Amino acid sequence: MTNIKYFLSYNLKMALTEKDRIILAELDRNARSPDSEIAKKARLNKQVVNYRIKNLIKQGIINNFYTVINVGKIGFNSHYVFLQLESVNEKEEKALLEKIKNKPYIGWLVSGTGKWDAVLLVYARSSSEFDNHLNDILATCNNHIHEYAFANLITAEHFGYKFLGQKNSKSISQTEKTTSTKLDETDKTILKTISQNARLSIVNLSEKIKVPIHTIRYRLKELTKKQIIESFKPKIEINKLGYQWHLLLIQFSAANEKRRKEFVEFCSSNKKVYYATQTIGNYNLMLDLHVHSTEDFKKTLFELKEKFSDVIKNYDSMIIFDEYKIDYFTELFS
Question: Which domains, ranges and CATH numbers included, belong to the chain?
Answer without folding.
Answer: 72-161+238-333 (3.30.70.3460), 182-225 (1.10.10.10)
